[in-house]
Automatic annotation (TrEMBL):
A single GO BP: regulation of DNA-templated transcription
Alphabetized Gene3D superfamilies for the sequence: Single helix bin
Pfam families, per the entry: TacA1 (PF08681)
UniProt protein name: DUF1778 domain-containing protein
Keyword match Nucleotidyltransferase: no
Family: Belongs to the TacA antitoxin family.
Nuclease listed as a keyword: no
Keyword annotations from UniProtKB, A to Z: Toxin-antitoxin system
Length: 100
């Protein structure tokens, strides 16, 4: 098994000269090396992408409707209630058998 602890992975990117000058200048302005700046910027953007991917966005109207339904749920139809009670009986019996 290879020991990869402590080893860094290399990332390579090709850019045009104007982009390279812009990034180098920004790195200099922040007091970072070019590599440090690129890693910082890429990590920051990756974290934001993850945050946005995990965030659920709903309209104000949808959020209000969801809260209204949580505060005032619609009554359960009799067939659904009966199915849930039957399931509870069956599942409870199965659970009791497993613990013996």
């Amino acid at each position: 098994m290879m020991n990869t602890q402590g080893k860094d992975t290399r990332l390579v990117a090709r850019v045009d000269e104007e982009t390279q000058r812009l990034i180098a200048h920004a790195a200099e302005l922040t007091g970072r090396s070019l590599s440090q700046f690129l890693i910082y910027a890429a990590k920051k953007e990756a974290q934001e992408a993850e945050r946005q991917a995990l965030q659920i966005q709903v309209s104000r109207q949808s959020a209000d409707r969801m809260l209204e339904l949580l505060d005032n749920p619609e009554p359960i139809c009799p067939k659904l209630r009966e199915a849930a009670l039957n399931h509870r009986k069956l599942a409870g019996g199965f659970k009791n058998r497993r613990n013996q």
